[in-house]
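User: For this week's homework, look closely at the record that follows, marking any run of repeated tokens, and judge whether sequence predicts the tokens.
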Amino acid sequence: MTDATASKPHVFDATTDRFEADVIQRSLQVPVLVDFWATWCGPCRTLGPILEKLAAEYNGAFELAKVDVDKEQQLAAAFQIRSVPTVVLVKDGQLADGFPGALPEGQLREFLKHHGIEPAPAAPVLEGVEGLATGAQAAPAAPPVDPHAEVGRLRKAVEAAPDDDQLKLDLALALLATGGAKEAARLIDALPANLATDERAVKARARLGFAATLQDAPPPETLRAAIDADPGDLRARYLLGVHEIVSDDPEAGLEQFLEMLRRDRGFDDGLPRRALIDAFRILDDEDLVGRYRRRMSSLLLS
């Protein structure tokens, strides 16, 4: 980090070596705006201070990663940067949007608002609670929930409060855990806009997408035979990977998607990368997801 960015809140210098951790992984918690710039670029000297001002004003609602294209040529090449300044938005581990050139402040605010990024309130300062964290005892772990019993409980809750959309989302997620994909899809499709982008709804849609992919797909043994006959059959690899993701062998599924990315990252309009991102969304094994995110980033930046 340079002296210039070290003193600015929510602004940091992004490098090739740290891009996976500082940008891709971080974007799972908070959107990251990546500013590709150069010291010799006049419009960059206009845009940069505005972006840094907004990063401070938005108080952590997004973070600003600065990439000096002359120092980080590998990153600039990976993002196919043809002119500076260029700004890209990384959200939920993937490229969400971007624009070339220096926009005025008003348009920058509209860009952020379009992606649901609004200024965050400052964290309140609480007085007289210094000893609470150290004196608290950890709550005992809750017993595992029977998914079928949870569906029954949530059905009754929705009947009692038919206008509670949060309960409907909870029911949709419970239905997915018991194989009720069609009913879950209907519930999720009917969610209002403020819940349609909820992290849990996005995760559920990824699950539903995989389930829909397999409706008319050949069985795994047929797909394995097709890959043995032609290792470059990326459609067969994709379908086999989906089978494995939704069954009990997610690592094997991730390997299929990674092999697709290695062979042809542009296949079917970027399907290998999209498949990996969707798999990351639905898998609960953070260590497994972290390992394959790093491998995906290494391939994309190679």
Residues 42-57 form the longest helix (16 residues). The first strand starts at residue 11 and ends at 13.
